[in-house]
Amino acid sequence: MKNELAKIYANTADAITKAETPEKIEEIRIECLGRKGALTAILRALKDLTAEERKTIGEEANKIRQKIESRLREKKIELERTSRESILKKEWIDVTRPGKQIKKGTLHPITQLLREAESIFASMGFATIEGPEVETEYYNFDALNIPENHPARDMWDTFWLKKLDNSEDRLLLRTHTSPMQIRYMESHNPPIRIIVPGRVYRYEATDASHDIQFYQLEGLMVDKNISIANFKAIIRLFFSRLFEKEITIRLRPSFFPFTEPSFEVDISCIICGQKGCSVCKQSGWLELAGAGMVHPNVFKAAGYNPKEVQGFAFGMGVNRIAMMKYKIPDIRLFHSGDLRFLKQF
Ligand code: PHE
Protein backbone atom coordinates (compact mmCIF):
# COMPACT_ATOMS: atom_id res chain seq x y z
CA MET A 1 0.00 0.00 0.00
CA LYS A 2 2.88 2.22 0.76
CA ASN A 3 4.10 1.71 -2.75
CA GLU A 4 0.72 2.52 -4.08
CA LEU A 5 0.67 5.78 -2.12
CA ALA A 6 4.07 6.73 -3.48
CA LYS A 7 2.86 5.98 -6.98
CA ILE A 8 -0.30 8.08 -6.55
CA TYR A 9 1.74 10.95 -5.26
CA ALA A 10 4.28 10.73 -8.07
CA ASN A 11 1.61 10.53 -10.78
CA THR A 12 -0.48 13.31 -9.34
CA ALA A 13 2.50 15.60 -8.79
CA ASP A 14 3.58 14.95 -12.35
CA ALA A 15 0.12 15.69 -13.70
CA ILE A 16 -0.02 18.94 -11.70
CA THR A 17 3.30 20.06 -13.14
CA LYS A 18 2.11 19.40 -16.62
CA ALA A 19 -1.33 21.00 -16.21
CA GLU A 20 -1.90 24.05 -18.35
CA THR A 21 -5.33 25.27 -17.34
CA PRO A 22 -7.25 25.73 -14.07
CA GLU A 23 -9.86 23.29 -15.46
CA LYS A 24 -7.18 20.59 -15.77
CA ILE A 25 -6.25 21.15 -12.10
CA GLU A 26 -9.84 20.54 -11.10
CA GLU A 27 -9.83 17.32 -13.13
CA ILE A 28 -6.71 16.13 -11.34
CA ARG A 29 -8.21 16.99 -7.97
CA ILE A 30 -11.29 14.89 -8.72
CA GLU A 31 -9.19 11.96 -9.99
CA CYS A 32 -7.14 11.92 -6.83
CA LEU A 33 -9.28 13.34 -4.03
CA GLY A 34 -12.81 13.10 -5.38
CA ARG A 35 -15.43 10.61 -4.25
CA LYS A 36 -14.01 7.97 -6.57
CA GLY A 37 -10.47 9.30 -6.40
CA ALA A 38 -7.35 7.13 -6.04
CA LEU A 39 -6.32 8.53 -2.69
CA THR A 40 -9.87 8.45 -1.40
CA ALA A 41 -10.01 4.74 -2.20
CA ILE A 42 -6.94 4.13 -0.03
CA LEU A 43 -8.32 6.17 2.84
CA ARG A 44 -11.51 4.14 2.64
CA ALA A 45 -9.62 0.87 2.68
CA LEU A 46 -7.84 1.82 5.94
CA LYS A 47 -10.67 0.35 8.03
CA ASP A 48 -9.79 -3.15 6.79
CA LEU A 49 -6.21 -2.88 8.02
CA THR A 50 -4.73 -3.77 11.39
CA ALA A 51 -4.50 -1.00 13.95
CA GLU A 52 -0.74 -0.83 13.47
CA GLU A 53 -0.94 -0.55 9.69
CA ARG A 54 -3.86 1.84 9.91
CA LYS A 55 -1.72 4.24 11.93
CA THR A 56 1.32 4.33 9.67
CA ILE A 57 -0.45 4.12 6.33
CA GLY A 58 -3.15 6.50 7.56
CA GLU A 59 -0.61 9.07 8.63
CA GLU A 60 1.27 8.74 5.38
CA ALA A 61 -1.92 9.01 3.29
CA ASN A 62 -2.99 12.16 5.13
CA LYS A 63 0.41 13.75 4.66
CA ILE A 64 0.24 13.01 0.93
CA ARG A 65 -3.28 14.39 0.76
CA GLN A 66 -2.16 17.65 2.33
CA LYS A 67 0.83 17.90 0.03
CA ILE A 68 -1.32 17.28 -3.04
CA GLU A 69 -3.96 19.76 -1.88
CA SER A 70 -1.41 22.51 -1.35
CA ARG A 71 0.29 21.83 -4.71
CA LEU A 72 -3.09 21.91 -6.42
CA ARG A 73 -3.89 25.26 -4.77
CA GLU A 74 -0.57 26.81 -5.74
CA LYS A 75 -0.70 25.57 -9.29
CA LYS A 76 -4.28 26.77 -9.69
CA ILE A 77 -3.38 30.27 -8.49
CA GLU A 78 -0.41 30.34 -10.85
CA LEU A 79 -2.48 29.19 -13.83
CA GLU A 80 -5.24 31.68 -13.15
CA ARG A 81 -2.71 34.49 -13.04
CA THR A 82 -1.08 33.55 -16.32
CA SER A 83 -4.40 33.12 -18.07
CA ARG A 84 -5.42 36.61 -16.87
CA GLU A 85 -2.15 37.92 -18.22
CA SER A 86 -2.68 36.27 -21.56
CA ILE A 87 -6.16 37.80 -21.82
CA LEU A 88 -4.71 41.19 -20.99
CA LYS A 89 -2.07 40.65 -23.61
CA LYS A 90 -4.68 39.70 -26.21
CA GLU A 91 -7.15 42.43 -25.33
CA TRP A 92 -4.60 45.11 -24.69
CA ILE A 93 -5.67 48.68 -25.37
CA ASP A 94 -3.26 51.53 -25.83
CA VAL A 95 -5.14 54.25 -24.01
CA THR A 96 -2.62 56.86 -25.14
CA ARG A 97 -3.36 56.22 -28.81
CA PRO A 98 -5.02 59.21 -30.48
CA GLY A 99 -8.71 58.65 -31.23
CA LYS A 100 -10.39 58.71 -34.62
CA GLN A 101 -10.66 62.31 -35.68
CA ILE A 102 -14.19 63.52 -36.32
CA LYS A 103 -14.28 65.69 -39.40
CA LYS A 104 -15.84 69.04 -38.69
CA GLY A 105 -17.42 71.10 -41.42
CA THR A 106 -17.16 74.85 -41.69
CA LEU A 107 -19.55 77.52 -42.86
CA HIS A 108 -19.38 78.20 -46.57
CA PRO A 109 -17.38 81.38 -47.34
CA ILE A 110 -20.53 83.02 -48.75
CA THR A 111 -22.41 82.23 -45.54
CA GLN A 112 -19.55 83.63 -43.48
CA LEU A 113 -19.47 86.80 -45.52
CA LEU A 114 -23.26 87.25 -45.41
CA ARG A 115 -23.32 86.81 -41.64
CA GLU A 116 -20.68 89.46 -41.26
CA ALA A 117 -22.47 91.80 -43.68
CA GLU A 118 -25.77 91.26 -41.87
CA SER A 119 -24.23 92.11 -38.52
CA ILE A 120 -22.59 95.29 -39.85
CA PHE A 121 -25.88 96.44 -41.38
CA ALA A 122 -27.79 95.41 -38.25
CA SER A 123 -25.54 97.75 -36.24
CA MET A 124 -26.79 100.56 -38.51
CA GLY A 125 -30.43 99.61 -38.00
CA PHE A 126 -31.03 97.47 -41.11
CA ALA A 127 -33.21 94.36 -40.82
CA THR A 128 -32.39 91.29 -42.91
CA ILE A 129 -35.22 90.11 -45.16
CA GLU A 130 -35.38 87.19 -47.56
CA GLY A 131 -37.45 86.68 -50.69
CA PRO A 132 -38.42 84.00 -53.21
CA GLU A 133 -35.92 82.78 -55.78
CA VAL A 134 -38.78 81.88 -58.11
CA GLU A 135 -40.26 85.26 -58.94
CA THR A 136 -43.04 86.56 -61.14
CA GLU A 137 -42.38 88.64 -64.22
CA TYR A 138 -44.24 91.49 -62.52
CA TYR A 139 -41.99 91.76 -59.47
CA ASN A 140 -38.75 91.00 -61.28
CA PHE A 141 -39.38 93.49 -64.12
CA ASP A 142 -42.64 95.44 -64.49
CA ALA A 143 -42.97 96.78 -60.98
CA LEU A 144 -39.33 97.84 -61.17
CA ASN A 145 -40.05 100.09 -64.13
CA ILE A 146 -38.71 97.59 -66.67
CA PRO A 147 -41.57 97.16 -69.15
CA GLU A 148 -41.75 94.45 -71.78
CA ASN A 149 -39.45 95.28 -74.72
CA HIS A 150 -37.30 97.52 -72.54
CA PRO A 151 -33.69 96.95 -73.62
CA ALA A 152 -32.69 96.51 -69.99
CA ARG A 153 -34.41 93.13 -70.04
CA ASP A 154 -31.82 91.82 -72.46
CA MET A 155 -29.15 92.30 -69.82
CA TRP A 156 -31.16 90.12 -67.50
CA ASP A 157 -32.29 87.30 -69.69
CA THR A 158 -32.83 84.38 -67.42
CA PHE A 159 -34.44 81.01 -66.79
CA TRP A 160 -38.16 81.09 -67.48
CA LEU A 161 -40.27 78.42 -65.84
CA LYS A 162 -43.26 76.46 -67.09
CA LYS A 163 -46.51 77.83 -65.75
CA LEU A 164 -48.38 75.43 -63.49
CA ASP A 165 -51.76 77.18 -63.71
CA ASN A 166 -53.54 79.73 -65.87
CA SER A 167 -52.23 82.77 -64.03
CA GLU A 168 -51.26 85.76 -66.15
CA ASP A 169 -47.85 86.14 -64.58
CA ARG A 170 -44.95 84.27 -66.05
CA LEU A 171 -42.50 82.73 -63.59
CA LEU A 172 -38.72 82.96 -63.68
CA LEU A 173 -35.66 82.52 -61.53
CA ARG A 174 -35.08 86.05 -60.26
CA THR A 175 -32.29 87.95 -61.95
CA HIS A 176 -31.71 90.24 -58.97
CA THR A 177 -32.85 90.79 -55.41
CA SER A 178 -34.55 94.10 -56.31
CA PRO A 179 -38.07 92.54 -56.54
CA MET A 180 -37.98 92.47 -52.74
CA GLN A 181 -38.00 96.28 -52.75
CA ILE A 182 -41.53 96.11 -54.11
CA ARG A 183 -42.68 93.15 -52.03
CA TYR A 184 -41.44 94.75 -48.82
CA MET A 185 -42.85 98.22 -49.51
CA GLU A 186 -46.22 96.71 -50.44
CA SER A 187 -46.56 95.31 -46.95
CA HIS A 188 -44.68 97.88 -44.83
CA ASN A 189 -44.84 101.61 -44.26
CA PRO A 190 -41.77 103.88 -44.17
CA PRO A 191 -39.32 104.42 -42.56
CA ILE A 192 -37.63 101.36 -44.06
CA ARG A 193 -34.14 100.02 -43.59
CA ILE A 194 -33.65 96.53 -44.97
CA ILE A 195 -31.06 94.38 -46.63
CA VAL A 196 -32.00 91.36 -48.76
CA PRO A 197 -29.27 88.79 -49.27
CA GLY A 198 -30.01 85.93 -51.63
CA ARG A 199 -29.29 83.88 -54.69
CA VAL A 200 -29.97 85.22 -58.17
CA TYR A 201 -29.76 83.66 -61.64
CA ARG A 202 -28.66 84.83 -65.06
CA TYR A 203 -28.46 83.23 -68.45
CA GLU A 204 -24.76 83.72 -68.91
CA ALA A 205 -21.64 82.14 -70.38
CA THR A 206 -19.56 81.13 -67.35
CA ASP A 207 -15.96 82.02 -66.80
CA ALA A 208 -13.72 82.84 -63.81
CA SER A 209 -15.76 85.96 -63.00
CA HIS A 210 -19.23 85.12 -64.37
CA ASP A 211 -21.62 82.46 -63.21
CA ILE A 212 -25.25 81.59 -63.89
CA GLN A 213 -25.99 81.75 -60.18
CA PHE A 214 -24.54 84.02 -57.56
CA TYR A 215 -25.48 86.01 -54.49
CA GLN A 216 -26.58 89.58 -54.24
CA LEU A 217 -27.15 91.79 -51.27
CA GLU A 218 -29.87 94.33 -51.85
CA GLY A 219 -30.31 97.37 -49.64
CA LEU A 220 -33.25 99.74 -49.29
CA MET A 221 -33.63 102.79 -47.10
CA VAL A 222 -36.78 104.89 -47.35
CA ASP A 223 -37.81 107.87 -45.25
CA LYS A 224 -38.74 111.53 -45.65
CA ASN A 225 -35.29 113.05 -46.09
CA ILE A 226 -32.90 110.47 -47.46
CA SER A 227 -30.13 111.64 -49.76
CA ILE A 228 -27.20 110.26 -51.70
CA ALA A 229 -24.97 111.58 -48.92
CA ASN A 230 -26.67 109.14 -46.51
CA PHE A 231 -26.04 106.31 -48.96
CA LYS A 232 -22.40 107.22 -49.40
CA ALA A 233 -21.79 107.37 -45.65
CA ILE A 234 -23.49 104.06 -44.99
CA ILE A 235 -21.81 102.20 -47.82
CA ARG A 236 -18.39 103.60 -46.91
CA LEU A 237 -18.84 102.50 -43.31
CA PHE A 238 -19.99 99.09 -44.46
CA PHE A 239 -17.01 98.41 -46.71
CA SER A 240 -14.51 99.87 -44.24
CA ARG A 241 -15.80 97.51 -41.56
CA LEU A 242 -16.00 94.52 -43.87
CA PHE A 243 -12.47 94.93 -45.22
CA GLU A 244 -11.15 96.24 -41.91
CA LYS A 245 -9.51 99.31 -43.44
CA GLU A 246 -10.44 102.85 -44.42
CA ILE A 247 -12.20 102.76 -47.79
CA THR A 248 -12.93 105.63 -50.16
CA ILE A 249 -16.15 105.53 -52.21
CA ARG A 250 -16.58 106.74 -55.78
CA LEU A 251 -19.99 107.02 -57.43
CA ARG A 252 -20.10 106.94 -61.23
CA PRO A 253 -23.25 107.86 -63.17
CA SER A 254 -24.99 104.81 -64.56
CA PHE A 255 -28.40 103.57 -65.51
CA PHE A 256 -30.97 101.34 -63.86
CA PRO A 257 -34.68 101.66 -64.73
CA PHE A 258 -35.65 101.49 -61.04
CA THR A 259 -33.37 104.24 -59.74
CA GLU A 260 -32.90 107.88 -60.70
CA PRO A 261 -30.19 109.05 -60.55
CA SER A 262 -28.30 105.76 -60.80
CA PHE A 263 -24.65 105.02 -60.22
CA GLU A 264 -22.02 102.37 -60.06
CA VAL A 265 -20.30 102.15 -56.70
CA ASP A 266 -16.53 101.84 -56.71
CA ILE A 267 -14.37 101.37 -53.63
CA SER A 268 -10.69 102.20 -53.38
CA CYS A 269 -8.70 99.06 -54.21
CA ILE A 270 -8.23 97.01 -51.06
CA ILE A 271 -5.28 95.13 -52.55
CA CYS A 272 -2.93 97.96 -53.60
CA GLY A 273 -4.38 100.94 -51.74
CA GLN A 274 -4.82 102.73 -55.11
CA LYS A 275 -1.22 102.36 -56.27
CA GLY A 276 -2.49 100.23 -59.15
CA CYS A 277 -2.44 96.43 -59.36
CA SER A 278 -3.76 93.58 -61.50
CA VAL A 279 -6.92 93.19 -59.41
CA CYS A 280 -8.03 96.79 -60.01
CA LYS A 281 -6.49 96.74 -63.51
CA GLN A 282 -4.20 99.64 -62.54
CA SER A 283 -7.20 101.93 -61.99
CA GLY A 284 -7.10 101.98 -58.17
CA TRP A 285 -10.86 101.31 -58.03
CA LEU A 286 -13.04 98.20 -57.71
CA GLU A 287 -16.63 98.16 -58.91
CA LEU A 288 -18.69 96.36 -56.29
CA ALA A 289 -22.30 97.57 -56.46
CA GLY A 290 -25.05 99.30 -58.38
CA ALA A 291 -27.18 101.88 -56.63
CA GLY A 292 -29.38 104.92 -56.94
CA MET A 293 -32.28 106.92 -55.56
CA VAL A 294 -35.52 104.91 -55.77
CA HIS A 295 -37.41 105.83 -58.95
CA PRO A 296 -40.85 107.49 -58.47
CA ASN A 297 -42.45 104.75 -60.59
CA VAL A 298 -41.15 102.13 -58.16
CA PHE A 299 -42.73 103.97 -55.23
CA LYS A 300 -45.97 104.19 -57.22
CA ALA A 301 -45.91 100.47 -58.01
CA ALA A 302 -45.53 99.74 -54.30
CA GLY A 303 -48.41 102.07 -53.40
CA TYR A 304 -46.33 104.94 -51.95
CA ASN A 305 -46.68 108.60 -52.83
CA PRO A 306 -43.35 109.60 -54.45
CA LYS A 307 -43.90 113.19 -53.32
CA GLU A 308 -43.85 112.14 -49.69
CA VAL A 309 -40.93 109.70 -49.50
CA GLN A 310 -37.39 109.39 -50.71
CA GLY A 311 -34.89 106.62 -50.53
CA PHE A 312 -31.92 104.86 -51.93
CA ALA A 313 -31.42 101.29 -53.06
CA PHE A 314 -28.31 99.33 -53.83
CA GLY A 315 -27.39 95.86 -54.98
CA MET A 316 -23.97 94.35 -54.53
CA GLY A 317 -22.45 91.16 -55.85
CA VAL A 318 -21.68 89.08 -52.78
CA ASN A 319 -19.44 86.59 -54.58
CA ARG A 320 -17.23 89.35 -55.94
CA ILE A 321 -16.88 90.84 -52.47
CA ALA A 322 -16.09 87.41 -50.98
CA MET A 323 -13.52 86.89 -53.75
CA MET A 324 -11.86 90.17 -52.73
CA LYS A 325 -12.00 89.50 -49.02
CA TYR A 326 -10.78 85.89 -49.13
CA LYS A 327 -8.64 86.20 -52.30
CA ILE A 328 -10.58 83.60 -54.31
CA PRO A 329 -9.53 83.55 -57.98
CA ASP A 330 -12.53 81.83 -59.62
CA ILE A 331 -16.24 82.45 -58.97
CA ARG A 332 -17.11 78.86 -59.96
CA LEU A 333 -15.29 77.51 -56.91
CA PHE A 334 -18.16 78.66 -54.67
CA HIS A 335 -20.44 75.85 -55.73
CA SER A 336 -17.82 73.38 -56.91
CA GLY A 337 -18.31 71.28 -53.78
CA ASP A 338 -14.54 70.83 -53.80
CA LEU A 339 -13.35 69.99 -50.27
CA ARG A 340 -9.86 71.30 -50.98
CA PHE A 341 -11.48 74.69 -51.52
CA LEU A 342 -14.04 74.52 -48.70
CA LYS A 343 -11.55 73.33 -46.09
CA GLN A 344 -9.69 76.61 -46.32
CA PHE A 345 -12.49 78.52 -44.60
N1 PHE B 1 -30.55 95.04 -59.28
C1 PHE B 1 -29.38 95.63 -59.87
C2 PHE B 1 -28.56 94.52 -60.55
O1 PHE B 1 -28.87 93.38 -60.41
C3 PHE B 1 -28.51 96.32 -58.84
C4 PHE B 1 -29.19 97.49 -58.22
C5 PHE B 1 -29.94 97.34 -57.08
C6 PHE B 1 -29.03 98.75 -58.76
C7 PHE B 1 -30.57 98.43 -56.49
C8 PHE B 1 -29.63 99.85 -58.20
C9 PHE B 1 -30.40 99.68 -57.08
O2 PHE B 1 -27.62 94.80 -61.23
How would you describe this structure to a colleague?
This protein has helices spanning 2-18, 22-33, 38-45, 51-90, 109-123, 137-140, 152-155, 179-187, 228-243, 296-301, 318-326, 339-342; strands spanning 127-128, 134-136, 160-161, 171-173, 192-201, 213-223, 249-256, 259-268, 285-294, 310-317. Strand 7 (249-256) and strand 8 form a beta hairpin. Strands 1-5-6-10-9-8-7 form a seven-stranded mixed beta sheet, with helices on both faces. It folds into two domains: 2-90; 109-342, BirA Bifunctional Protein, domain 2, CATH 3.30.930.10. It contains twelve helices and ten strands. Helix 1 (2-18) packs parallel to helix 4 (51-90) and helix 5 (109-123) crosses helix 11. With 345 residues, it is an alpha+beta fold. The protein is rod-shaped and about 140 Å long. The model has no long low-confidence stretch (mean pLDDT 91). The structure holds phenylalanine. Phenylalanine (PHE) binds at residues 176, 178, 218, 256, 259, 290-292, 313-315.
